[in-house]
Structure to design on (407 residues):
């Protein structure tokens, strides 16, 4: 009879390591929890999260920072998946070894089931002894999955900062354009005293009919210049990606241009908060940009930023990726283990796609694109790994039986 202390020690080690990783993850996110951006200065401070910094440097290296951030996300995801590929390979190797071990153990496990079926404790002890002998890892898949989830939320925090940073940059650029236009028009009109100080600005209450007409015209021209600058190739190129008008907004029914409540964190999901602005100021500066017909969009009055393509694709690829991973794992031979493991696999097949769908719908198009690209790369790795595994099996089979026909 085998002591169950070995199994308990292994579980304790796995859980302890998982707890340490989770704590490190929380500390890492907590150290980068500055998600507010002030727009009171001339320039917006860069993100503090290391993932956001890496994305920003990567973006600046592509077309001088004027290219679409969507392609930066694709490149960032591929690089990250390559960096994490040893972990991915480890997970697949463990699954493959478990599958091979289960094939060898299946007759013995069935025999144990028939022999000790009535004595559940003895059956579990004998099974664990056999698992240890055949080096079948009952929890070897847990650690890579935990690390993958940790990376997922760390990357999510980086994207959250990038969204807020871009919102702040867009508004700061629009505000500078607005103020410069108003100042130039005031100077041309002659509303400047002998000391060079303005006698009137866009925030004053005009007294005479002439001042009222002038400010109304100046405000309209300034808002038009803001709209033209916002839609210029230099600024628009960063936000636009294929069918999505603004990659920093969700590929869904959200407006392509975020309103005041969104950029200040009063509504919406996973966005940083802009500080140093008021609702009146924001809507005065962005008035024509906030008009969907002029800023661009789908649906009635151009109210949709995207077409829900990325969320749907993320769900579909997540189903496929989970299905491929679960099919590579051999189920346990005993009925109890098979039921438990089968239930876990079925739960994962539903939980992960649903989670991907929620993130794809509620968060930025950039993060949805990251999830889609990550799933696509994972599926590619899985196919390659499966092909290599079959070639290795065929080679070993041929060596063990030289007379076998090559198909």
């Amino acid at each position: 009879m085998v002591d169950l202390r070995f199994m308990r020690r292994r579980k304790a080690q796995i859980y302890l390591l998982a707890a340490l990783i989770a704590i490190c993850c929380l500390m890492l996110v907590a150290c980068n929890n500055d998600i507010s951006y002030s727009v009171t200065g001339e320039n917006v401070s860069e993100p503090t999260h290391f993932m956001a910094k890496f994305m920003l440097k990567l973006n600046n290296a592509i077309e001088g920072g004027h290219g679409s951030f969507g392609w930066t996300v694709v490149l960032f995801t591929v690089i990250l998946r390559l960096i994490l590929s040893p972990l991915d390979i480890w997970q697949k190797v463990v699954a493959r070894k478990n599958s091979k071990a289960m094939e060898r153990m299946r007759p013995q496990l069935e025999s144990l089931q028939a022999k000790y079926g009535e004595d559940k404790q003895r059956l579990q002890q004998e099974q664990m002894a056999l698992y240890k002998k055949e080096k079948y890892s009952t929890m070897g898949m847990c650690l890579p999955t935990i690390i993958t989830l940790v990376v997922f939320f760390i990357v999510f925090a980086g994207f959250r900062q990038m969204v807020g940073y871009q919102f702040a940059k867009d508004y700061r650029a629009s505000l500078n354009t607005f103020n410069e236009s108003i100042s130039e028009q005031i100077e041309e009109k002659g509303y400047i005293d002998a000391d060079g100080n303005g006698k009137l600005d866009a925030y004053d209450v005009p007294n005479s009919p002439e001042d009222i007409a002038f400010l109304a015209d100046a405000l309209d021209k300034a808002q038009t210049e803001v709209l033209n600058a916002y839609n210029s190739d230099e600024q628009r190129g960063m936000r636009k990606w294929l069918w999505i008008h603004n990659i920093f907004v969700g590929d869904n029914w959200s407006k392509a241009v975020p309103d005041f409540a969104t950029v200040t964190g009063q509504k919406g999901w996973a966005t940083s908060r802009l500080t140093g602005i008021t609702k009146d100021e924001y809507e005065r500066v962005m008035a024509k940009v906030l008009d969907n017909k002029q800023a661009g969009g789908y649906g009635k009055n151009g109210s949709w930023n995207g077409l829900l393509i990325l969320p749907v694709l993320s769900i579909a690829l997540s189903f496929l990726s989970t299905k491929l991973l679960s099919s590579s794992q051999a189920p346990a031979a005993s009925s109890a283990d098979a039921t438990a493991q089968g239930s876990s696999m079925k739960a994962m097949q539903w939980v992960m796609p649903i989670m991907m769908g929620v993130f794809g719908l509620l968060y930025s198009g950039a993060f949805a694109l990251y999830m889609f690209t990550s799933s696509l790369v994972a599926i590619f790795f899985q196919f390659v790994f499966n092909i290599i595994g079959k070639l290795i099996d065929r080679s070993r089979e041929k060596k063990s039986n030289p007379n076998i026909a090559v198909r």
Remarks:
- Strands lie at 36-38, 273-275.
- The chain has 14 helices and two strands.
